[in-house]
Amino acid sequence: MIGIIDYGVGNIKAFANIYKNFNMSYKIVKNISEFENVTKLILPGVGSFDHAMTSLQNSGMREKLDELVLNDKLPILGICVGMQMLAKSSEEGELLGLGWIDGVVKKFDKSKIKDGPLPHMGWNSLNIKKDNKIFENLEKNPRYYFLHSYYFECNNKEDVIATSNYGEQFECMINHDNIYGIQPHPEKSHHMVCSY
Amino acid sequence: MLAPRIIPCLLIHNKGLVKTVKFKDGKYVGDPINAVKIFNEKESDELMVLDIDATVENREPNYKMIENLASECRMPLCYGGGIKTVEQATKIFNLGVEKIALSSVAIENPKLVTEIAKEVGNQSVVVVIDVKKKMFGGYDVYTHNGTKKTKVDLEKFIIELQSFGVGEIVINSIDNDGVMKGYDLSLIEKIKPLVDVPLTILGGAGSLDDIRKLIVKFGIIGCSAGSLFVFKGKYKAVLINYPKNEEKENLIRNKK
Amino acid sequence: MKNKDHIICVNCVMDTTDSKITFDENGVCDHCQTFYKDIKPNWHTDEKGWQEITKVVEDIKKEGKGKDFDCIIGMSGGIDSSYLVYLAKEKLGLRPLVFHVDAGWNSQQAVHNIEQIVDKLNLELYTEVINWEEMKDLQLAYFKAGVSNIDTPQDHSFFATMYKFAQQYDVKYILTGGNYSTECIRNPLEWMYYQSDSIQLKDIHNKFGTKPLKNFPVTNILWHKVYLPYIKKIKLIRPLDFMPYDKEEATQFLVDKFGYQRYAQKHFESRFTKFYESYWLPKKFGFDTRKVQYSSLIVTGQMTREEALEKLKKPAYDEKTIKQDFEYIATKLGISVKELQSYMDAPNKTYKDYKNQMTIYDFGAKILRMLGIEKGGKR
Description:
By secondary structure, chain A is an alpha/beta fold.
């Protein structure tokens, strides 16, 4: 069963609707007692890094998630700011991230983006860098909806599985063991759903 | 490469969809839910839904309807109309809407932009500015569905909004609304250099060619349209349409 | 209590779920008999039929000289009406105005198909959008009434709108895609009562509706079956009856030539009708409209009885999507899934439980059959 972590941030309903339409079992997890039977986690996220990290801390689920993800190796997919939270820190905020994937979050260098504003907003294509089972059943020329001004930079390039281009190539999908991150919004990209 | 966004804009009046001409004479277009469902199935880039009564009637947004619309969208949805407080904005956000659009309230209290952005992130705060040509050059900013002229200086306001952290600006041309004879390109020429955040233009699109012209001239820009995606032919028959993926590719790559 | 035996016609697939069905000594049902006795001998799709329709077409062209269009074609986006539009323009040389009534339930395929046909044939489109709040209220009233034919609001509005337009703009010819080829066997009245019975519509609305019908178009049988054709000379023509019409061939043709998107079943261009025919009727009443459609195809040689029986083994609705479809219907009607389910579970009613104009229909049908104007007809 998929567990969608509801810590007060992110478009929970959009995810719920997708799983409902695919007839896949899911539950919305709001506190530590609700993780029973969950085999995979979704960590949504929008807004600012600090706001998301604070909300996660305040939800009381932080320690439980550390345990499930780092000890029990439960698969987790962080989306948008949810992916950025996997980092050690972000240029956007003061707080520390979850630190589950070795890397930091940086702001786009505006000088490199010709004729494009920030945030990076709209449909852009994915360049797959490494084979990964999450790409099974993915369409040819995948395009996703992006909405962000910051991006994840992995210290270990082995963790990068896909990039996109905005001014320059930037990492938009990462994977380390059971931990996945995707910068754009698969839940708002029509049928671009990855095999998670 | 990032593609320019092509965004249908739907207006809600008395719970139904309408399409106006110069902000007047709303023609009934039908039920919002089915329209949104069809745009979703046609895989629109995004969708903008504006409740044009809420501010005029000084009432709360229709949360049930918003929730129903959001559940039909597997693409980003921007909702506007009657949002005056942070609580309303976050409530709507939690119903599954990606972006909140503010209009008159951004003029009365631009700080609200910052306050809402704190909760949902800058990228999700949009301000829609309705403009009309002045008699002797320049543009006036209007509110309340084009009925109240303000004393706001358009250029100054756009710069000010960005300092308050707005995530996207939508310029809506009242003169070109529903006329379907093309966008006001000179207006955009004036505004674009002042805008560092995503900019979307609404008002006047009569054909996909108008969208192409916009993209050729301005590159990465949001091309929004109401009548174009809702009407067909000389009798303005109501038929929801949207460029297919190949047509969109051609538009984006400026091919004929 | 012992259940009545379930008997299927040996020729088609109509059966005793039509409670008024009768069989002859060979086990052939009265639907088939009516077809072979009354319809088939008078139905000409050969040279004779072509001559008949070309004569009508000449009249249409004469009448339409100097006008923007010479006829209107009711187009739902379904196969019959889509093929008819092509035929009218390309084969019969007419200048039709394509007329579409939007009742709020168009599927994406319907909208796409209408667009493709209109664009590729370079025709003008006219749409009338029914006031959704009133349509919603009326549809809910029908649910509450518990009758089988809850699709009456849509059907009624389609015809009423077209007739009103024709009268308002003095359009003498309305073409529709109705045809014997796929509809010679009709839904029993028990399953689908006359959608044009405005007395029943008003009675159900009075009893269960909450909003006045201000904008909703209401017609009545005397107005459009007597006044319009005989006094105003506005005629309804069914061109598909005058030539060979093979459903599958027509469908494939539309797919190849117009990029047409197929529907899972007849009438599924409307999301509501899809729910109505694949779920409400069979699940609540045991009425499976596929039997009617397949039986028409069987007697016209477009499907074998074996094929039909095989198809009927599967449920009428798609088990994979029914839950979402059900939710969508409820959401769109502004009610909860629980409330919609309560209408499914409520006692079944019939058209006889509400005011109706059956006597007029019975009388009218007799006259029309006597005059040879209508062959077959509903029962």
